[in-house]
Design goal:
Helices cover 13% and strands 48% of the residues. It is mainly beta and 355 residues long. The longest helix has 19 residues, at 13-31. The relative contact order is 0.18.
């Protein structure tokens, strides 16, 4: 492995995570006895928008720069009427259900993948390819069951992007490594070639609320997901658990796909809402361009594993118009010969901005 200079105390990825966990623990201790005030009425939330910034990085998980190296996604969600073309797309699919609440979410993001050994400049045939993914997406959301202890909704997303040098992954990673003073990855000349990517994703989620006492609630949220496209094709399902206060004012923090379903939506409240969350998702993977290689031309590839599992745990704190969330994700080995599992941390900030 490469020789990484020791970073100043407080600047390392793991140090940042531990400090955030410490601060959130102090917040938790101070809020154990606090309640959540009635949230902002739904109609008022239509006069504004929800923003989300998500960062995912392996430095905050395994502490190494390898496999799924980094992801960034910026999202905007509106409760106003979705655009006609997206609504018609949903209406044309028999499994997409419309309901009393509809929303549209737009996202732009980038993902970066590297092999385990980033010192070598030559092709490493038995490790995953260098690859980048720059994309934009539009997601139609609908809640079609709203009962006292059950909410059911679904999400239909269409994503368009570019894999390869045009994703600018090499420039972003090398520039960031130069900024923080660590060794630059040397094998980007072997990355996947440019390829247009198109994805259609459908997610259905059930939220069951269980009163615990003392103002606490426990939520079980099973979900099913399917994605079809030349970048990813998979089907999966899982369960998210949440324990805390104000769960109905929140639908869990976003994740960058593939990952657990979550959205920027929060209902502003003067008193704090908080919760711990943990979940597991399994996926049967038919296509992963970042392991299978380019679709229409020769490129580096490895033999992927058909079954992949994610385990996530974290903490979220929400007060007034803003929510902070921190989590850690463990992902099982994705290809044959992979030395270790994937582990990365995620930091999310979501906030509501009135017009």
């Amino acid at each position: 492995m490469r020789n990484v200079p020791k970073m100043p105390v407080g600047l390392s990825g793991s140090g940042i995570v531990f400090r955030l966990i410490y601060l959130m623990t102090l917040v938790f201790i101070g809020l154990v006895s606090s309640g959540a005030e009635a949230a902002t009425p739904l109609e008022k939330l239509k006069d504004g928008g929800f923003w989300s910034i998500q960062f995912e990085n392996d430095l905050w998980g395994s502490g190494d720069d390898r496999f799924y190296s980094h992801g960034t996604e910026i999202s905007y969600l509106s409760l106003k009427r979705p655009p006609g073309w997206l609504t018609r797309l949903g209406q044309g699919l028999p499994f997409f259900h419309t309901g009393d609440v509809s929303a549209v979410q737009y996202s732009v993001g980038q993902k970066i993948f590297t092999p385990q050994d980033t010192e070598r400049s030559t092709l490493i045939t038995d490790d995953r390819p260098y690859a980048g993914w720059l994309y934009g997406s539009a997601n139609l959301m609908s809640r079609y069951v709203d009962e006292p202890n059950l909410q059911v909704g679904n999400i239909l997303g269409i994503t368009v992007g570019i894999v390869g040098p045009s994703s600018q992954a090499e420039d972003i990673q090398r520039g960031f490594h130069d900024l923080i003073g660590v060794d630059k990855p040397n094998g980007w000349d072997n990355q996947l070639q440019d390829e247009l990517g198109i994805l259609l994703t459908y997610t259905r989620r059930w939220q069951y609320f269980h009163p615990v006492g003392g103002g606490l609630e426990f939520e079980t949220s099973p979900h099913l997901v399917g994605t079809l496209g030349n970048v990813y094709t998979y089907a999966g399902g899982g369960m998210m658990l949440r324990l805390g206060k104000g769960l109905r004012n929140d639908i869990a923090p976003p994740n960058i796909r593939p990952g657990f379903p979550g959205v920027p939506y929060i209902r502003p409240s003067d008193k704090a809402n908080w919760y711990f969350f943990a979940g597991v998702e399994g996926r049967a993977v038919a296509r992963n361009i970042f392991l299978d290689g380019n679709t229409f031309r020769e490129s580096h590839s490895v033999n992927k594993k058909p079954l992949v599992a994610d385990v996530q745990f974290g903490f979220a704190y929400h007060i007034q118009n803003i929510r902070f969330a921190i989590s850690n994700v463990w992902r099982s080995r994705e290809f044959k010969g992979q030395d270790d599992n994937v582990q990365f941390g995620a930091i999310n900030v979501s906030f509501f901005v009135p017009y």
